[in-house]
Each structure stands twice: as C-alpha cells, then as structure tokens.
Write a structure and sequence with these properties.
Cell_wall_metabolism_enzyme, single chain, two-stranded antiparallel sheet, LysM_dom_sf, alpha+beta, 11-stranded antiparallel β-sheet, 276 residues, Membrane-bound Lytic Murein Transglycosylase D, Chain A
Length: 276
C-alpha cells in the first residue's frame, strides 16, 4: 500500500514539474516576440484558423507595392516563386521561429541573406493563388512544413486584432490616415461631411461604419485628407454599385485591386482611389 501511495506522489510531482516547464516555455515564447513589428501597414482581412481551419496565417490588404518588412532580424531561408504562395520569402529567426511573406509583387532578398528587423524584403502584390492585393503572413515554430503542423496564430506575437482593423508599422501612421475628427455635441455624419467637404458614405467607408449613428467623443477619420482608402465588400455588392457610391470607375477598381473577371466576394478589401 505504501509503495502504491509513493508511486502516486511521484506521478503527481512529475505532472506539476511538466506543467511548470510548459508554462515557462509559453512565457519565454511570448517574451521572445515582444519587439516584433507588423510586417506591413494595411487592413486585416482574414485571420488564423478560418476556412474550416485551413487558413494558417493572417492577411493584410493595402495598395499594390506597399512595403513588406521582416518582423525581426533573421536569415532568409527561401526566396522564390510558388504556384500557391506566388512570390514568397521565408525568414528564420533566432528564437526558433520561421515567418512567411506570400503573394508579393516583388522580392528584394535572396536565400542566405541576413536581414534586420524592419528591413524591406519586398512589396505587397497579388501573385500565386490570391484574390486581391494582400500580404499572407504565417508564423511557424522552428520551421515551415508542407502540412503546416508547426503553424502558430501570428496574433500570439502581435496581439489580438479583428478583421477590418487598420494596422501600422513601427508606430508610424498609415499613409492614408492623416487627419481625425472628435465628435462634438450635436454633430451628425451629415454635418461633419458638410464641414469637411466630403460625403456621409465616404466617412462611413473609411471608418468601416455600418450605420449612421455616432457618439460624443468618438474619433473619426476624415476622408478629405485621404488620397485612397479601403472598403470591405458586403454580401450582394457589385462593382457597379461600389463605383457609383464612391464616385470612381469600375476600371479603376479593377486595375488598382487587380480583379479578374469583375469577381468580388464578401469581406474582400478593395482599395478605393479617389478621383483627383
């Protein structure tokens, strides 16, 4: 009986030790990415684990040619063209992780090259198996594998964000977001639009508002300071409706977003270029 109790105690102690080791490992992992920077500025359009669990990264949409940066210093493991990833760069880091930057328009680095944190490694594009201009970013523990068994949610490193969230690089504001307005007593979207020389629809688009209600103290981005902005496609939208609503042309939408066969889909982020 004493031998049985001794075995139970030993097993319990081992379980506690293993648990502490696991928790310590998670803490070390979190600390090791504290200084990471976002790989590109733009709008988050998809997150980890969507598409029935098959989406093993996050998507960030912006204009074609937007700079893409290494999130941390490391060594380029691969830099090539893939039928699925398009122009893609793999970077291995000192904390035993590997990051992937896919669908690039251009690649500026080669295999074996050392890169610094924040170094521009390419530009955002629409190459490979891609619908619309965006960066597909993946994070893997140790290294990338074909079945992506080592994939980690990038938000572990960057913090949780939602689809439609605008992100910045290294604390710098997005080029297209330069002027904000704080809602005052008695303001409405109509009165703000009139004062700023824009339209209610434009204000709603750049702030991703689905209704006309605003609240006292709310911060709004004013599109009168914007050259380009983004619109998230809703169910039932067509290019014709979007072009009419935002005073642009179908050809402009197709060209800047590299749309094939005039096909758009819900939650797709479109770059809207204002008429100069």
């Amino acid at each position: 009986m004493k031998d049985y109790i001794r075995r139970i105690l030993i097993a319990g102690i081992m379980l506690v030790c293993v648990s502490l080791l696991f928790l310590g490992g998670k803490s070390a992992k979190a600390e090791s990415t504290n200084d990471w920077m976002w790989p590109a500025e733009g709008v988050i359009t998809d997150t980890f684990g969507t598409r029935n669990g098959h989406h093993k990264g996050i998507d960030i949409a912006a204009e074609p040619g937007t700079p893409v940066h290494s999130v941390e210093q490391g060594t380029v493991a691969k830099s090539y063209y893939s039928d699925s990833y398009g122009n893609v760069v793999f970077i291995r880091h000192e904390n035993q992780t590997e990051t992937i930057y896919a669908h690039l328009q251009n690649r500026y680095v080669q295999e074996g090259q050392k890169v610094a944190r924040g170094e521009t490694i390419g530009t955002m594009g629409n190459t490979g198996d891609s619908s619309g201009v965006h960066l597909h970013f993946e994070l893997h523990q140790k290294e990338w594998t074909y079945n992506k068994k080592n994939a980690i949610d990038p938000f572990v490193a960057f913090g949780d964000k939602e689809i439609g969230h605008a992100i910045t690089v290294a604390g710098q504001p997005m080029n297209s977001i330069e002027h904000t307005y704080i809602v005052k007593q008695g303001d409405s979207l109509w009165s703000i639009a009139k004062k700023s020389g824009t339209s209610v629809e434009e204000i709603k688009a750049v702030n991703h508002l689905s209704h006309d209600e605003i609240s006292l103290g709310q911060q709004l981005i004013l599109p009168d300071e914007l050259e380009d902005y983004t619109y998230i496609v809703q169910e039932g939208d067509t290019l014709t409706e979007i072009s009419l609503k935002y005073n642009t042309t179908i050809d402009s939408l197709i060209q800047i977003n590299r749309i094939d066969n005039q096909t758009i889909y819900p939650k797709q982020v479109l770059i809207i270029q204002k008429n100069k």
